[in-house]
Amino acid sequence: MKLVLISSSFLLALVGGLLGLLAGNSHYPKDPNDTLKRVQHGTLRVGYTRAEPWVVPGLQEPQGIEPALVRSLAQRLGARIEWVGGTEQHLFEALKAHELDLLIAGTTDESPWKTEVGLTRPYVETTVYVGAAPGTTLIASLKGQTVAVPLGTDIGHFVRQHDAQPAYRAQLPGGAPLAAGYEWQLQSWGYRRLNNLELKKENHVLAVPPGENAWLLALETFLYQHQAQVHQLLR
């Protein structure tokens, strides 16, 4: 796991943008639909879908890394959260139509929706590895092997690139000899990370309605200021 460091020039741009917003400067980003103004001390409509460990559906509210960040954000804004669950396709369509203010779905900057909605700058970079269960013989190649991967992700595609077969599972590791996961997940399972078997790197972002640039800027500023919380949540 590696945190993305935001450059000092980007930080200056964020600070300058916020000062411009507070001053009502017409040259700084605005929200055509007044999202930032509306959610402050109002209601924050948040769409979510299963994307463990980023978003974990619960009985009442979602849990996981990104819901924890949203709760901190809502507290900062003095806002009430309205949680809206659904499929990724449905939620992105709702976000595009401005029926949601924010979408959390373990989204990365490679999302096919990146040209249709607004995405924050990456707030964290992670790497997916292959790990071996305790007592499993360590191997140097995945060729011909079967690797357990999380259901509903594209990780199986990267497993196939190593001439291996993905086995999709709702719960990992489920006793599989080989499983794909983030480094902290492998450690929690007691799996040993296999050397040179890095599957993919991910730059994680949050999604907002298209064109709501003041809201996007405020969200990016919040994420920058909460990098320590992201680090703690990932651990």
What is this entry, summarized?
The chain has 235 residues and is an alpha/beta fold.
How would you describe what is shown here?
This protein is of the alpha/beta class and 235 residues long. It has two domains: 8-122 and 205-234, Periplasmic binding protein-like II (D-Maltodextrin-Binding Protein, domain 2), CATH 3.40.190; 125-202, Periplasmic binding protein-like II (D-Maltodextrin-Binding Protein, domain 2). The chain has eight helices and ten strands. It has helices at residues 8-23, 35-39, 65-77, 88-96, 155-160, 183-189, 213-225, 227-234, and strands at residues 43-48, 80-85, 102-104, 118-119, 124-132, 146-150, 165-169, 178-182, 192-204, 207-208. The strands form four sheets. The chain has a three-stranded parallel beta sheet, sandwiched between helices. Strands 8-5-9 form a three-stranded antiparallel beta sheet. Strands 4-10 form a two-stranded antiparallel ribbon. Helix 1 crosses helix 7. It is elongated. The N and C termini lie close together (9 Å).
